[in-house]
Amino acid sequence: MNGYSDTERADALFSRKDFDIDGLDDEIRVDERCLRLLRLFYLDQVDSGRPPEEAGALAHGADYFLRDFIVADRRENIFALDCGRVRQFAGNWYIARNLEPNMAELEGILRGVGAFYEYAQKIGRVSAGLAAGIRAETENLALYRRRIEDFWAIEDDGYGEWDRQCPVED
Q: What is the pLDDT of residue 134?
């Protein structure tokens, strides 16, 4: 047994509004709820037949996007975001905030993000349109590969232009 009750696995465990952020206390609460939801996501992936290692990798990728970018940096509801946030994350934020941004790591994160939003649709927290839009953004690997290559090629004060090409906007 995995330690989760049927009640905790129920689709009604969290409502969308449980992930609204209006201040620091909300951010801390939402971060904790994200952890619980990611555990349920992991279990759902295992229950669906994924090997635990693969399910764990998906949850880890989703975790980085959700908790570090959407909650901590953007302070947004994980269920009420614009799918363009994925492009901002993968095409700028991830690259600029990592010592060695690379496609292997980014692809793993993006796989997790896509799978998480499919799960969010399954439990009724996001629309099919949002899940599809996020999936499309996670599959735009050529753009993100080019953004990483362009980042490594920045010389002198070229960062500003690189940043303007795919900005992280509020």
A: 97
Can you tell me the distance from the alpha carbon of 20 to that of 158, in angstroms, rounded to the nearest whole number?
Answer: 37
DSSP assignments along 68-111, one per residue: IIIIIIT---TTS--THHHHHIIIIIHHHTSSS--HHHHHHHHH
Q: Pull the structure tokens for residue 161.
A: 């232009």
Residue 168 DSSP label = -
Helix, strand, coil fractions of the chain, as percent rounded to 5: 70, 0, 30
Overall average pLDDT of the 37-63 stretch: 96
User: Which residue, 106, 103, 104, 135, is CA-closest to 119?
Assistant: 135
Q: 67: helix, coil or strand?
A: helix
pTM of the model: 0.88
> How does the average pLDDT of the chain come out, rounded?
89
